[in-house]
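User: These chains co-purify. Model them together.
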Amino acid sequence: MSTANRHWILARRPVGNGYAEAFALETETLPALAEGQILVANKVLSMDSGTRMYMTDREDSYQPGTPLGAKLIGTVLGVVVESRHAAYKAGDRVRCYGQWADYSVVEPDATYCTGLDDAHDDLKAYVGIYGANGWTAWVGVVETGAAKAGETFVVSAAAGCTGLMAGQIAKARGCRVIGIAGGAAKCDLLTREYGFDGAIDYKAADVEAELARLCPNGIDVYFDNVGGAILDAALANMALFGRVAVCGLITNYIAEGPVPGPYRFDQVLMKRLRIEGFFSPDFYAREPEFNPQLARLAAAGQLRLPFEVSTGLEATSAAFTKLFTGANIGKVVVEL
Amino acid sequence: MSTANRHWILARRPVGNGYAEAFALETETLPALAEGQILVANKVLSMDSGTRMYMTDREDSYQPGTPLGAKLIGTVLGVVVESRHAAYKAGDRVRCYGQWADYSVVEPDATYCTGLDDAHDDLKAYVGIYGANGWTAWVGVVETGAAKAGETFVVSAAAGCTGLMAGQIAKARGCRVIGIAGGAAKCDLLTREYGFDGAIDYKAADVEAELARLCPNGIDVYFDNVGGAILDAALANMALFGRVAVCGLITNYIAEGPVPGPYRFDQVLMKRLRIEGFFSPDFYAREPEFNPQLARLAAAGQLRLPFEVSTGLEATSAAFTKLFTGANIGKVVVEL
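Assistant: Joint model of the two components:
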């Protein structure tokens, strides 16, 4: 099989959110598969802000950086078109770490790859509620945050994919839920459509003062997707023995140099807080445990996720940019 | 009874470690006890760095600040000389939040106060191994740090009272223990006398590089007494899923303005760390659980604590200063 494959490479390290300048679309002829590899026709590219870290050359990241000139990688959903791996055959639907390309060449024994069940016809569901974002929201609320009924739960990037699900999961568990998001429209959506008890527009409000007003007994669980000044505003308002579940630190991903930690870091001692990071690849293997819990919430109407779909491989850099500019509500994907 | 009582007051807020200028020794005639109060002849004043926070007017502290002109407070050991509280009688030995004075007036129903058992003739033991420092070391190692045999354990202010006990407790649990202390003499003591596997002189060494050399598999538990640059050096060297048990943040206590948090804060996410503060008053009530465990270690020769004794109430400000200038090894007390 001699097939053309368009693929995005990391042409240079992105500065800030300059992804259009950092990525380049190239075309190759696919090489023959090696033993143990599969060829996946990509159908959905999952846009995830954590991928930003792979674009740096930092050695203290959770994943090795992508070398300049190499293909950009991320979670993809697709269909196997050719297999030299015994566990996969043509026609299988898979979720894997693939390439931002028409086709992904994947070595399932060396990288994340899993076949999909038949529960959902719509492939996108497997990077939404029933994928890493859903599992992350679940773990952050239930395990890292240990949110209990009656507690006050605050989440940042609350209209984003993980934040929106985290807020709904916390609400379903009986928490009072406050979301922090950018813009009045998103805030309205959170309270009117998704059952949040309150929302703070960080672009317009004094977040620390609003948290104090909306959380008079303090924040028991802060689910953080952003770090930076909003983390500080939350730390200033934590309840005794509160938990900060650190899901993402978008502020840090984009920084060029060292970023000071939160100025209210000493609240970890003053309030006896627990600040804990968590990272979805650590619990990918627990998918069979998470999905039924998430499906139960979805069936009860307690967990919904809108998609922000871009179409065509060319749209990838613009779609990725949305994650950082606050342009999206829910899960951003590129459909091919 | 008309008795003169010398007592230290907070004459002004200390700047840095200028305690001699901030404290003033005054004399009063003791007022008659009110119902519910006891009068304690102070025998031992416990010097604790956390007391520094009570001397600020910060509202985000773990304890309300001491008003200017008010008596300085802290943990004292003494003997009841007069009682208007049913649970106490003259002659009882007590540990309580008292005043830095010849006599403490204490209201046991409103403040920490407890009678002492007969296990130790030497009163000092009740603010050493069998007091808040011992319990703090135990909780930080066993519970907050969750140190397990075979893990690498690092403690800062390792020659101080809590740090020295934390290191020994971790060692007794089978950890590899590295201490960070100021000066070659202290470092020698840690490794030669107290069984530490290694020690780093932060005044002479590049702490981050030395931690990398001494902890090639990363730090599993960092027991932090200081914060600041040493916390950053530790964060840069944590192992995946490491725990940072935040016992004290001396760097922050002394700061006049907001202090940036650790520059390596993002390691909480990159390494999936747990950073957790703990504070001994939360577990004072668990004394009956802790002391037998600590006594068992002491009986086995695995837990020893030297005292740095100053004599006479006049010596208090100089004794307190030792906690912050690195002049002490082990527990600093003032004996009256």
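Chain B has two domains: 4-128+305-335, 132-281.
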